[in-house]
Amino acid sequence: MKEYGISGNLAERLKADFGRETRPHERLKLYAEYVEWLKSGRKTTTIRIESGKLRYPASETLQLVETVPADKSYEKPIGSVTFEKIVIKRFGDLDDGDAKRDGFSSKEELRSALQEIFGAIPEDELVSIYHIKSAKFDGGA
Question: Does residue 140 carry a pLDDT above 80?
């Protein structure tokens, strides 16, 4: 596990430390159900995975976009989210603490949800855990 602040050249630091390509998120997409978890405080992290690459937020604050699993074309900008840090760890090392911060009751539930979203994930695949500092929702929500 390795922790990174969002400032500075995060892409270069990740590439140097892990020898992998990196890809920034310009916007943060979350399923509507997870947006509700974020609003209620149940969700304080989000986990991002891309095979063979490390994902990271392009800046400290990103536009927050609501999506739904059943309609891949549905994208609704709903506010912004600000990050405190990211943590990189192996998929196989995710634990119950990671699950709770992501809004799930157990690491098994978290792992199952991630595999539903991203497909089969090898135990040694690196994941990016974005720690959320704050979220602002359009319309005062």
Answer: no
If 0-12 CB within 10 Å is exposed, 13-18 middle and 19+ buried, where does residue 28 land?
Answer: buried
Q: Mind listing the pLDDT tens digit for each residue in 76-133?
A: 999 999 999 999 999 999 999 999 999 999 999 999 999 999 999 999 999 999 999 9
* Nearest one of 50, 5, 44 to 25, comparing CA atoms: 50
Quote the DSSP letter at residue 51: T
Could you tell me the domains of the chain?
Answer: 2-140 (2.30.130.30)
- The residues, ordered by sequence, that sit 6+ positions from 136 with a Cβ below 8 Å of its Cβ are 79, 80, 81
- Determine phi and psi for 30, rounding to 5 degrees: -135, 140
